[in-house]
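Model: Ready when you are.
Researcher: Fold this.
Model:
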Amino acid sequence: MEIKPLKQYSAQEMDQTLFEVSKKIYPRALTGWFTSWRWIMVWFTQLIFYGAAWLNWNGRQAILFDLAARKFYIFGIVFWPQDFIYLAVLLVISALSLFLFTAVAGRLFCGYACPQTVYTEIFMWIESKIEGDRAKRMRLDAAPMSPRKFTLKTIKHLVWIAVALWTGFTFVGYFTPIRTLTVEVASFDLGPWQMFWILFYGFATYGNAGWMREQVCKYMCPYARFQSAMFDKDTLTVTYDEKRGEPRGSRSKKADLSTLSLGSCINCTLCVQVCPTGIDIRDGLQYECIGCGACADVCDQVMDKMNYPRGLIRYTTEHALTESLSKRGIWGRIMRPRTLIYSTILGLIVAISAASLALRLPLKLDVIRDRGMPRIMEDGSVHNVYRLQVMNTEETAHRFTIEVGGIPGVEIVSGRNFAVAAASTTAVPVRVRVAEGKAEPGSSKILFTVRDLDDKSVSVSEKAVFLIPR
């Protein structure tokens, strides 16, 4: 394709180029192996998203990101602000997983699990049920406004808005207990932030899935722009077999292909009509392709009707096409240095993170020394006061005891034992005494240890400073 300098484009060509993004795409409905998998992923992801918010665990919501209390609950695990490292690890794992999947099979996430793809599928299904199939929708949009058209459009958008608002409600339900949120919605007693995020997320869902659709994938999503950096000649992508398909041309089903000097492609353009981003896969790999496989499904159906072998459009690699590799040869090159490195690093990070979570102590300690001056008692001993911030990260109450060391004869004057409620923090005031002559004037290091009375293996220590006036 020849690329002309900008100044060589006519005004008409410029207008066509600039406003082409607003052209509406009408994907044709179809069935097939890849289509079935897309719908399986729609059901799987939405059952998790809409359903998990209603699950209970230990008398509370199973998955809850309680920003007000600064606690994240994920089933039996409670994350605190001090556990921010796990969020960073989760982001690293997500990025490496994306790199690995992309290196192996292109934009699998985009085609099957991306929220934009999933909600676009849902909204297009609603549209087809209300307005009809592709041809009926095109005729309806081209027709002038009428009572029937107004009614159908109104019903469609009302259903879209209902789904979008339910999606926004569910999203907020992961940050505010969803049962409490339900009562607040029913009683029209929503707080300003809950109201804002329900409407904002609902509007984003309605706008992206109902109106923008493929525009998000083509022009807004950054992944479409840098995906090629993760592709190589052994990456599985949806590909048109040009050697087999060209030259393309229409013919009857009974025609002898060898006598016509034509390829297998009958130029039916169904691959374009089913594409959710409106591209022609026969023009080669394009950044707009989300790897959904719709074109492969419809092309296989055409090949079946023509009694041609399937696979004119299929998941394959550039090396497979140029070197005529078998399926075994294709999969043999999947385990190449790039994917092995990604897999190894990903596996190590997941294993280390899982071990860290499994071995994580349900106890955290922070020691703050009182700002007041040390007190010298009548017997010559010196007293320092501290505040121990003790955090019980488990959802069961625990009893703890405090020990102190680091200076000969150092002891705790106040009570040693205390209890901390489930998943909560307690401030414990502690008075520490050092007898006269046991330490040099100035500052000395001491060590506080908080130990679980019921499980001696659970303990945590924290350093502090003991001051003795000069």
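Researcher: Now this one.
Model:
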Amino acid sequence: MAQKDVGNKVPIYKLKTTKEVMDYYDEWGENDKYNKDMVDWNYTGPKETVNTFLKYEKNKDALIFDAGCGTGLVGSELKKFGFKNFHGADLSQKLLNTIPLNLYKKLLRTDLNKPINLKDNTYDAIFCVGTFTFGHVKPNALDEFLRITKKGGLICFTINEGIYKNYGFDKKIQELNKTNLWSEIEFFKSDYIASKDVNAWLGLYKVK
């Protein structure tokens, strides 16, 4: 199947280096432009992922880590359903600064391509939505998510379809399946940014 040319529709997908991506986000985060674009594009990633999570997590006191939280879209969705104990992490301080006060209990400026400065078995659930995409976070972050998630906890993520094989996410997920570190609960193609003809794989896994 031919690769979709999504770079012209979503310009950030053309960027290669972390610095280029961060510079773009710093400008994108000004004057609420990022959030406005997400509404205009009908970006459904946060809503779809939270709705999938809700089918399996009923404990509203669950401690949740939102990796690559951006402007807090996942946190806003979680709050609608009564969840309140979540921490967020992102590499862009500009985006973190746009998050509504008191939405997250804690915010960290973190490079998810490096070891995360958090203790093992800390969280009941991890979200990573919109972060496994072109020029962003690589598959090894999944190892860190497993490390900081409690046994029986949930890991929920989206992977842009354009990088699923090119970045080796397919192989990484196969490897984790074989080592029996987690079990697949759901894995399906989501709409993600339907208005731009950009889809993503949406996965939900339970830590063993």
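Researcher: Key takeaway?
Model: Strands lie at 64-67, 86-90, 106-109, 123-132, 149-160, 182-193, 198-207.
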